[in-house]
Each structure stands twice: as C-alpha cells, then as structure tokens.
Amino acid sequence: MATWSNSSLDFCSWQGISCSRQQGRPRRVIALDLEGEGIIGEIPPCISNLSYLARIHLPFNQFHGSMPPALGQLSMLKYINLSSNALSGEIPAELSSCSQLQVLALRNNRYLGLGNNGFVGRLPSTMGNTLPKIEKIVMSVNNLDGEIPRSLANATNIVYIFLAQNSFSGVIPPLGTLLNLQALFLFENGKLEAGDWSFLSSLTSCTQLSYLELDGNNLQGNLPSSLTNLSRNMEYLTLGSNHITGSVPPGIANLDGLSFLYLDNNMLTGSVPDSIGNISSMFGLDLSNNKFYGNIPASLEENRLSGDIPAELAGCLKLVGMNLSFNTLSGPIPQGLFGKLNQLNLFLDLSNNQLTHSIPDDFGSLINLESLNISNNNISGKIPSNLGSCVLLQELRLEQNLLEGQIPTSLAALKRIKEMDFSQNNLSGTIPEFFDMFNGLQYLNLSFNNLGGPIPTKGIFANNAPVAVKVFKLEQSGAYKSFIAECRALRNIRHRNLVKVITACSTHQNSTSLIGPRGSVGYIPPEYGMGSRISTEGDIYSYGICLLEMLTGKRPTDELFDDGFTLHKYVEEALPQIDAILDPDISKEIGGDHNIHTQSHEQGNKTEVQKCVMQLLNLGLLCSKEAPKDRPNIQDIYSEVVAVKEHFFSISLKET
What we know:
Blueprint: E1 17-19, E2 29-33, E3 40-41, E4 55-57, E5 62-65, E6 79-81, E7 86-89, E8 103-105, E9 110-111, H1 127-130, E10 136-138, E11 145-146, E12 160-162, E13 167-171, E14 183-185, E15 191-193, H2 198-202, E16 211-213, E17 220-222, E18 236-238, E19 243-245, E20 260-262, E21 284-286, E22 306-307, E23 321-323, E24 328-332, H3 337-340, E25 347-349, E26 354-356, E27 371-373, E28 380-382, E29 395-397, E30 402-405, E31 419-421, E32 426-430, E33 443-445, E34 450-452, E35 467-468, H4 479-491, E36 505-508, E37 511-514, H5 536-552, H6 567-574, H7 584-592, H8 599-623, H9 634-650
Parallel strand pairs: 2-4, 3-5, 4-6, 5-7, 6-8, 7-9, 8-10, 10-12, 11-13, 12-14, 13-15, 14-16, 16-18, 17-19, 18-20, 20-21, 22-24, 23-25, 24-26, 25-27, 27-29, 28-30, 29-31, 30-32, 31-33, 32-34, 33-35
Antiparallel strand pairs: 1-2, 36-37
Enzyme class: transferase
Subcellular location: Cell membrane
EC number: 2.7.11.1
C-alpha cells in the first residue's frame, strides 16, 4: 500500500488506519480497516502491541496460518472480522480475555476440525461467559465441530449467530435468554439435533427473532406446538432436509409475518393446515417430499407448491372452486380428475405453473364452470372441441402455452363468454366468424399466433372493445417487409389507450410467424422473443432484472430505456461508480444510518455496505446476460446471495 512508507511517520494518515482524537493526549491506533487489499502472509503477533486497538477488520485477504494468541492481550478489542481468508488451526483460548468483544466474524476460513490435516478443536464451552458483550458471531462456512456452547445463553447482548455450514453436532442449546436475538443461522451442519425441542420453546421469548434457519441437520421428532408461538417478526423459517415427523401445527398462521416457510424433505404427515394460505406475506412455501395427505387447502395461492397435481383430489366431490395458480406444479393435468369434480362451478385456475401435455378431454364435463384459466404453462396439443360443452363459461384463458391447431368451431356454443385469451400459442387457421356473434364478449386476444385469413367485421371487431389480433398473408408479395415496417411503426406509437407494443418475428422453413414473449414486458429474456421454450435460464434472467430494478429504483420499461439502451446496459456502463444509479432511498440508507462517531469509521461502514450493493448489482448483471449459457445456475445465485447477506449482517453498526 502506497501510503505505508517509512518516509511518512504519520501512521494515522496511512490507508486503513484510524487513530484516537482526544485533545491533549497522544494519538493511538484504534482501528485497522484493510478489507480486500490482497495482503498475503500470517497475522503478526506484534499486532498486540497496539494496546488501544478496538477494531480489526481484515476480511477478503490471503492471510494464512493461525490466529496469534497474543490477540488476547488487546483488552479494548470490540470487533474482529477475519472472514474469507485461508486461516487454519485453533481459535486461541486467549480471546476469552477480550471481555469487550462485541463482533467476532471468522466466516469462510478453515478454523478447527481440519480432519485430513490433523487439526482438532471446538468453540470453548465458556465462550458466552468470557465474552459477555459479544453481539455478532459470524463463523459460517468453516469446519467447526463439537457442540454449540450452552454458555452462549449468558451473552445476552447477542443479536446475530451465524454458525451455518460447519460440522456442529449434539442438541441445539436453549437460547431464550437472548432477548435481542434477530437471526439464528445453523443450517447445513448435518448432525445438530433437536432433543426434546426445548430449544425451540425457549426461542419463543426472543420476540425480535426474524431468521431461524435450521435446514440440513438431524432434527427428529414431532414438530412442537410451540412453533406457532415464535416471534411475530419471523420472516424466514427453514426446517427442510431433516427427519421431522408429525403434523404441521394448525396455528402456523399465527406467524403472519412469514415470507419463507421451508418444511421440505422431512417425514411430516397429516393434512396441510387450511390456515397456511392465509399468511398474506408468504412469498415462498416448500412442503415437497413429505407424507402429507388430504386436500390441498383452497387458500393456497401464489406460493411454491411443486410436483404433480395429485389425482387424489378427485375425492373432493363437493369442491366448487379450485385455485392452484402461481406455484411450480409440473407434469400433466391428471386425466379423469375433473370428470369427477363436476360440482366445480365458480372457477378453476391452474395458471402460472409448469404443467405439460394436453388439455384433458374431461374438462368438457365442467358444464357449470364460469371461469377456466390454465394460462402461462407449457400445455401442448389442440384445444379440445368438447370445451364447447361448458356453456356457462364467462372467462376462458389459455394464453402463453404451446397449443396448436385450429380454434374449434364448437366454441360457438359459449354464448355467455365475456373474456377470451388465446394469445401467445401456435394456433393456426383462420379466425372463426362465430366470434362476432358473442354479444357479451368484452375482451378478445388472439395475438402472437399463426392465424391468417380475413378478420371478422361484426360484434367485438366493430366496436371499441379490447381486441388484439395480427393477421398477415404470407403469399402476398412484400408481406414480410411490410410486416417488419409495421412492427417498427407500432413499437414507437404512444397513446393513452394503447399499451406499448413489443414485437418479434422469426423465419423458419419459408414461413413467418409472430412469436409472443412469455412473461411480463421488460422482464422476459431475449430468447423468448425468438421462440425459445420457457426455461430455468429464463427465470434467472427475470430475477436479474428484478434485482437491478430493486437497487436502481428504475423499471426496465422506463422511458429512459429505448433504442437498444436497457436497464442492464444502464447499470453496466455505470459500474464501478454506483452512486449515480442507486435508488435514492438506498443511497440515503447507506449514507446516514450508522451510529459511528469518527469519520473514518463512518466511511468504512459505508464502503462495506457499498460493496454488498456492488456484489448484488454484479449478480443482477450476470443473471441478465443476453445469452442463457452465460447466466449462473440457481445454486451459485443462492450461495452468492447468502454470502452477501451474511457479510451485510456482519458489518458493525456501533462505535468500536
């Protein structure tokens, strides 16, 4: 580092050095902030000579060897962050002498338990007694083993405990005395046990607890009813990939602030509580790979149910409405299921899933149904002609699938129809004339198909009702050039009664077809516009755009983005300077929400938060790469987000 030089003895001006500013007293080094400086070597024991040192922040370097025991001589030390280095060996017991220590972050090193190298060790059993002021323990992604010290319950200032992805074993200790606890991360240790679940009951006293992540362990036994008495601030509750039995407590909806509930890969039985779908804040729900039986609660909508639609639903003979939309249900719609559910008369909504194969013929038996929505799936084949038997239908939505063939003339029997959307399929043939006989039809969308021939002139086609149709005759000379010119003109039209037109075309075997992007405008990947099938890579693209939108505060459809200039390019061209593109609310949060008295410390914290934001912006750019093969997979995305989250939580927000 250029400023570290014998030519300048003013060490307080050196990069990463902060000194005390007490008038009339010698200036003392109180903080070392040297994150990501590429420093190589061992941590020198002489660091203990800086007797006023309160903060050591050295993550993301290349330190190796062990932690010097001499650190225990720093009696004023409040903060240590040595995360993401290559340290090994035992955590020195001498650290117990640092009674002022509030933050200990050793994430992603190789402390303790390096089996193939012969290193052994574990967290000191008296850790909570000797470090009474500790607030943040960040030691995830190491090889720590042994039991989690029960004495942590005595360190009542603890706010965050990150001990995930280690090799801890034994029963999780009760931590109910930690009234300030906000996050407990113990996932993927493999051998942690629940015992009699008293640890969970004790956590009901932790009213600020928002994150409880225990997945990937050896928790056994029935889920206790005390689960429903956890903090109302609980947002993340993950218990997946354990050996939990019994049923989900019916009072689970008491946790009405939950965003994510993962109970997958256990041995849970019984029915899914009806109330679970009433948690309005729920964003992700995973109950897969258990032994649940009975009916899927009707209240489950816009969650994360996966797998096939169970044929056993045929036992719900009195069902009058079914909504399984916005999940990740896959496979075919079971043949014969809806022939038995002929009491359905309100709605059947299977939209926004990953269903495949064809529309079952027995849909035609739903003669009392008023609304059918199977849009946004991967359903193929033809539209069954017996859908014309559903004479009470008022809404029929089949858009964004892979349907082909002609629109059956039998649909002329749907005299009560009000809304019909067949857009973004591969339908062909002409537009049936019977559409102009539907007197009640208020909305019709046939766009992004391969339809040809004349457009009817009566009914909905003759008034101002919403109708979206594009037909062009390929056999006419100049049809392709005319179509392209029309696309360009339509794209630039702006009117209060028109949505912005997005157009794409492709040629294949001397035929031209309009291909509809599958998804929300601005968030759909480029390959969908070229006719590619829906894919995981496409979802990752949409996630990347959402991430960039959250951080910049700009939608991908903002007027700023035109003529090839996109949200992706907007961010890419700005980096590494992020101040100009950040959402003003985020910039304000970074700049003014730290309780730090010295300017250098305030700037240090701001820089750390900016690095978290920078990582997320780069992740958003990677996810929204134009080529699907250049985008990261979901496992890499998850690892990156977890790393950013833990690093953010490890930032000290108090004066050190």
